[in-house]
Specification:
Rossmann fold, alpha/beta, five-stranded antiparallel beta sheet, 2 domains, Immunoglobulin-like, about 400 residues
């Protein structure tokens, strides 16, 4: 026991001495602040040095690697303890403390997440201090919320907080996460998709330094993004990752049922609600009868969209709820409003099979759709809770940390 006590005392003394040395203002220490894009194409790289002694003529040198391109800088004198730096990707220069240290071939707007690593060495007398830092330059991500998002018209702060924790910025001169708010009750899918495209061209693209973006489409928002991917060739080249979350790709039965009730007219009898009617057979006159689509339940716009395959080159993910209790409507039997409901796994509003484009009630599904997806089963999560429940795993997808897909 005495030997253990002496060992612990020696350990405590060694840690204390190390802490004292680090706190010693005469000890040479260098660090690099977190890298961040301050304006499109310009990255702040601030270097902070402790223990600078001008009489010893300290010098600084370093290497920066941007997405595999390595840039070596010549040794320079240290002129201050805080050296604000700027990596200009557009002009191909790196300035530190107002002095140009590097000149390199300009880096074009990236089409992928790229890493920026910084290695700095400071020398002073017989001392040398080094630091290594790696940060990611993330592709901008656009979040397209779902139906009735205009009831609040503000981004979900909890969702943005998760993304900001992962390195995104929702504010400032060079944001990397955007939130598209739109008047969902007034617009058809086509009109909403056009508004989304206008927002991207008017607001998002001028604010970023990237050749591609990621899109996270929740519920109806995923249909708006799909519309542009299907009908606008530029979108197929613009989008890198497309994340669908609880998207009614084959529609949803509540869009039909709720339209029968006058009290729900303001949210159920709208152009967008009509464009989310099921494209799968969801009605039958009686038990045992064949499933079909009622005369007032046809959805030509969504059916036309589903005839377009997902574009090549876009990595597409489908996050979905698969709870069974309480069930998700998959069909109705009888005459409205006195009908019986059939149920299927889902999130309480959208069947999992609708998100995945699989056959429902003997329908055809969306040919070639399911096999193009990375599918992520969120389990028993309700539709209105999907975005909050999934955003951390979505962030994994966006930042190349991987994600565990559901069963295929």
């Amino acid at each position: 026991m005495r030997a253990v006590g002496r060992l612990l005392l020696a350990l405590v003394l060694s840690v204390s001495l190390a802490a004292s040395a680090y706190a010693d203002p005469a000890r040479l220490v260098v660090r690099v602040a977190p890298l961040e894009m301050v304006t499109p194409g310009r990255v702040r790289v601030d270097v902070l040095i402790a223990g600078v002694q001008p009489a010893l003529h300290p010098t600084i040198e370093g290497t920066i690697a941007v997405g595999g391109a390595v840039i070596n800088g010549a040794r320079q004198p240290v002129v201050a303890a805080h050296l604000p730096g700027e990596l200009d990707l557009t002009g191909g220069t790196f300035r530190l403390g107002g002095v140009r240290m590097f000149h390199f071939t300009p880096v074009p707007p990236p089409a992928e997440n790229i890493s920026i690593s910084v290695d700095i060495t400071v020398r002073q007398g017989g001392e040398t201090a080094t630091v290594h830092r790696v940060d990611m330059l993330l592709l901008p991500t656009l979040i397209v919320p779902g139906y009735l998002n205009d009831l609040t018209d503000t981004p979900d702060p909890a969702v943005l907080a998760v993304l900001e924790h992962r390195g995104y910025r929702a504010a400032g001169h060079a944001p990397t996460v955007f939130w598209f708010a739109y008047p969902s009750r007034r617009l058809t899918l086509e009109a909403g998709a056009r508004a989304l495209d206008a927002y991207v061209g008017r607001t998002l693209l001028p604010a970023i330094y990237a050749a591609r973006i990621n899109v996270v489409g929740y519920s109806e928002g995923g249909l708006l993004a799909r519309w542009n991917l299907a009908y606008d060739r530029d979108w197929a080249h613009l989008v890198d990752r497309f994340v669908m979350l609880g998207v009614p790709n084959e529609g949803t039965v509540p869009a039909y049922v709720n339209g029968w009730y006058p009290a729900l007219a303001s949210i159920a009898a709208t152009p967008a609600a009509h464009d989310m009617l099921p494209t799968f057979p969801f009605w039958r006159a009686a038990d045992g009868a064949a499933w079909s689509i009622p005369p007032d339940g046809h959805n030509a716009d969504l059916a036309a969209l589903n005839a377009h395959p997902l574009p090549d080159g876009v990595r597409t993910y489908a996050f979905y709820g698969s709870g069974a209790h309480p069930g998700t409507w998959a069909g109705i039997t009888g005459t409205m409003p006195a009908v019986q409901y059939s149920y299927a796994p889902g999130d309480g509003i959208v069947p999992a099979a609708s998100v995945l484009g699989r056959p429902i009630n003997g329908g055809d599904g969306i040919p070639g759709f399911t096999d193009r997806l990375v599918r992520v089963d969120l389990g028993d999560v309700r539709h209105l809770s999907l975005l909050g429940a999934a955003i951390a795993r979505i962030a994994d997808v966006l930042t190349d940390r991987g994600v565990t897909p559901g069963s295929r």
